[in-house]
Amino acid sequence: MSASRRGFLFTTPALFAQSAPSERIRIGLIGAGGRGRHLMGELAKSKETNFAITAVCDVHRPTLQAAAAAIEKQYGAPPRATTRYQEILANREVDAVMLAAPDHTHARMLKEAVEAGKDVYCEKPMGTDLGEARAAYLAVKRSKQVVQIGTQRRSEGAYVEAARLFREGIIGKVTRADMQYHFYEPRWRRDFHMVKPEEIDWEAFDFGRKMGAFDARKWREWQLFEPLSNGIPGLWMSHLIDLAHWFLDDPYPRSAVASGGVYLWKDGRQTSDVFQALLDYPKDFLVSFAMSLTNSAGGRNLWFGDKGIFDGEKFVFLPEGSRHPDRLLEARKVERTPLNSHTDNWIECIRSRATPRADIQAGFSHAVAGCMAAEALKTGRRVTFDPGRLEMS
User: Fold this and answer.
1) Is the same domain home to 188 and 268?
2) How many Å apart are CA 226 and CA 37, to the nearest integer?
3) Which domain holds residue 271?
4) Is the pTM of the predicted complex or chain greater than 0.90?
5) Quick one: angle between helices 238-248 and 157-167, nearest 10?
6) What's the pLDDT tens digit per position in 161-203?
């Protein structure tokens, strides 16, 4: 029996076989853990109609079975269920896929999905390996597929309005942004002692990374280990650095330096609990991103222009700090433009073939920044990016 056939836990007759993307959209969910369940919940709240999850994949068999039962209850028919994502991509009765498996799988799955003719919702980070991210980016650009990246701030009205005001020059020439998030917790640590080897398709989870024999902790706490994650740059910085590319219309850092390490939670993790990066951009602004799991100071998101500042935590533009003759004269609160959800925007664009709010360029841009920061942390050197060759050095 082939590995792909072993991957199926059960199969069902063809579902909605006469449907087409212009009619019922048949969705395959790849990754049914925390993010996958979140996406299932978002779809359940959708204002869009005439779609269904018809296939589901997860390497953990109990998770797969639970997701399949929930999908059957929601949509009225049992989905095809497998531990091998390739079977979903090869299924002609699936029109689109949602990628919510661990971070080390995103870029390669995205590339293979669009090459298989599927529209894609891909969770962030779009990639943690620059070579794989570049290959996925170029594959999407060659394709006609609709791709939405899961940086959902692009579907939040306050950020959309802030982006418009930045583009209009409300605080003038922006030279620096300071982004910080701090929590006192051993984040991403979970109990793994109940996990049994026979419950995991370890080969599928390994994804060619050659991690060796089954390791329950690496499956359950993958965020803490390389090469399953590039740590804070992909797990958290991707959301915030996306704002810099969006607000200031500058897609790639010119250079990056970074520092950090495991300073408090010395529990065998490989990814940092304290991290800071400085990213310099061609349009002459500097982004400082810092995160720690060692103090609960909360968030800070300040943008400094020569006409004023933007407080991205309170969504207000302020006149403080400027002596520019056209500086802001009073505070201006950002209005929250009503928008449909990030998942609804994706489904809407599948029907219309329009470009979704967080397109492949947005995804590749944050992947580049994350890979640069992770490489700078790993090597202790300044990392640069060539936008012509799409390579870092």
Assistant:
1) yes
2) 24
3) 157-337+361-392
4) yes
5) 40
6) 999 999 999 999 999 999 999 999 999 999 999 999 999 999 9
